[in-house]
Design a protein that fits this description.
The complex is a heterodimer of chains A (147) and B (393). Chain A is mainly β. Chain A has one helix at 22-29; strands at 12-14, 33-38, 44-45, 60-65, 68-77, 91-98, 104-109, 123-131, 138-145. The relative contact order of chain A is 0.22. The chains are: A mainly beta (147), B alpha+beta (393).
């Protein structure tokens, strides 16, 4: 039994030379979720963008947030579309809305029973899934029911 | 200032296709498929292929107009155009671009084309087999959300939740495509009818999508020849006039990492208004509709956002009887579409819309004057188009 929700062998995140992505991926390795916040108008923004979509400022900062949200949408994927998933069986993905941070949304897997009933609006919290031994050491952000 | 509109200025004079194949089974390379479809469309229009002076495509079609023009003996290349955006979202956009070019005097004879050989090139419905992924896709691919079915399932799930829509509505859409394919000699799924029971018992791909909610993946090519309305009147076939074509999406739709505005949407709310304004028709005037089924959930949202059905009435309305060419209230996907005719990135929906105006579809709707196409939903930009008979002008 692996400690990871999905088997190894899927493409892993890389942010080599990508300054726009780096603060997020370096942060989650330290169990810290960082997202963007505009230095001028204070709007939260996610995913990473060079410009504030509210006020057109290029003064984008990063701010730590708490990984708490509610399920906005979900799917249970059954059909394997990658060889690494061939023997996995169905798995759950959730799109989580973070009401405390401008309703930004984050996608991850929903931990626990793959066959559980999933209800939109259910509170979830972030769980850091570390992959330190990967060729690219990285951390995925998963979600678990409960606030 | 004169009214700025494409309405009635341009017409489809010719349509052509190769045979349609299961993915990876085309006997020809992709560029040969493109050339064969263009030659067929020229033949259908009754024009010399050397007369084609404009090319418009979408979805990063790999067949460069300069290569096609050289092969076809084009005398002068005057317009080469690519509509941005993935999947079938740009199908009607390419029609809009081609029509605008003709109307503006940039070119006289423009072909809209799309060619796919997934044996020669990669398939759509598979995840990338690479060790690492950078940028925006790093926020979904490592979590196993890689294929279009998986990505768009999240939109459909949310939309169905917001409006209390059930699986049966998706089933009705799938049933319509399979029903019409049974009469269509070109359809890959001819001879494989779908029943409610077969749908209900089919495997899940990614909830809420069953197998039959998902398009096929095919090889082949299609082409559409556009000329000025004046010129089309004297050509071989009854012209299918472009009444309108629109493309785009609401602001904010293109934000990354699943944070686009209007998430639970086909992305047509403003584009549908722009189309109807140009065409000077509304949903009640549409005699027959082709609505791109990458996934049935996309059709559901497209129908709502084009005013064909209220979301709250979708369960009740989206049943096969209402969607049939023979007597349905809203004849839908009358060739079998992407689900059951061929996944030619929706250009096959435009050729079917033209057949309906000409009166020679295998599932001909009676007295068609207004024939509409909603191209690939849920991407950005999206696009749509309406074709009309002479009487509609």
């Amino acid at each position: 039994m692996t400690a990871f929700y999905l088997p190894e062998g899927l493409p892993v995140p890389t942010w080599e030379g990508d300054e726009l992505q780096r603060p997020y991926w370096e942060g989650v390795k330290q169990e810290q979720l960082n997202i963007q916040r505009c230095g001028d108008c204070n709007a939260w923004q996610w995913g990473p963008e060079w410009m504030c979509h509210e006020c057109r400022s290029f003064n984008m900062n990063w701010a730590p947030i708490e990984g708490k949200g509610i399920i906005y949408s979900w799917t249970r994927a059954w059909h394997p579309v990658h060889p690494a998933l061939a023997d996995r069986g169905p798995y759950l993905a959730v799109l989580v809305e973070l009401p405390d941070y401008g309703n930004v949304r984050m996608l991850g897997n929903l931990l626990g029973d793959e066959h559980q009933e999933v209800v939109i609006g259910t509170p979830v919290h972030a769980v850091f899934e570390h992959h330190p031994d990967n060729a690219i050491p990285h951390t995925l952000v998963q979600w678990e029911r409960g606030s | 200032m004169a009214e700025r509109s494409l309405r009635g200025k341009v017409a489809v004079a010719g349509i052509g296709e190769t045979p349609y194949y299961k993915h990876g089974q085309a006997p020809d390379p992709e560029i040969v498929l493109a050339l064969k479809a263009i030659l067929a469309a020229c033949d259908d229009a009754g024009i010399d292929p050397a007369e084609v002076d404009g090319f418009a495509s979408y979805s990063d079609d790999r067949n460069n107009p300069t290569r096609l023009a050289a092969a076809l003996g084009t005398k002068e290349l005057r317009f080469s155009n690519m509509q941005w955006g993935g999947g079938g979202g740009g199908g009607s956009g390419a029609i809009a671009n081609a029509s605008a070019a003709i109307n503006a005097g940039i070119a006289d004879t423009v072909v809209v084309y799309r060619s796919l050989a997934q044996g020669q090139f990669a398939r759509f419905g598979q995840g990338p087999k690479i060790p690492a992924i950078a940028g925006d896709p790093a926020f979904n691919i490592p979590y196993g959300i890689m294929s279009p079915a998986q990505q768009y399932s999240l939109k459909a799930m949310r939309f169905m939740h917001e409006h209390g829509i059930h699986q049966t509505a998706l089933r009705g859409i799938a049933m319509a495509s399979y029903y019409h394919a049974q009469n269509n000699p070109r359809a890959i799924m001819r001879g494989r009818p779908l029943t409610e029971e077969k749908y209900d018992n089919s495997r899940w791909i990614s909830e809420p999508f069953h197998l039959y909610d998902c398009c096929m993946e095919n090889d082949g090519a299609a082409a559409v020849i556009l000329v000025s309305a004046e010129r089309a009147k004297d050509m071989k076939h009854k012209p299918a006039y472009v009444l309108g074509a629109a493309l785009g999406s609401d602001g904010g739709t293109g934000r990354g990492a699943y944070n686009g505005a209007h998430f639970a949407s086909s992305h047509f709310t403003s584009v549908s208004r722009n189309l109807y304004d140009m065409a000077k028709v509304g949903p009640k005037d549409v005699d027959v509709l082709q609505s791109y089924e990458n996934f049935t959930g996309g059709v559901l949202m497209s129908l709502v956002e084009h005013g064909f059905v209220e979301a709250e009435e979708a369960d009740e309305f989206l049943v096969l009887d209402n969607l049939k060419a023979d007597g349905g209230k809203l004849p839908l996907n009358t060739s079998g579409g992407n689900l059951a005719e061929c996944y030619m990135h929706g250009l096959e929906l435009i050729t079917e819309a033209v057949h309906q105006i000409r009166g020679d579809s295998p599932n001909q709707v009676k007295d068609v004057n207004v024939s509409m196409v909603i191209s690939g939903p849920m991407v950005s930009p999206v696009s749509n188009s309406i074709y009309g008979s002479e009487a509609s002008l």
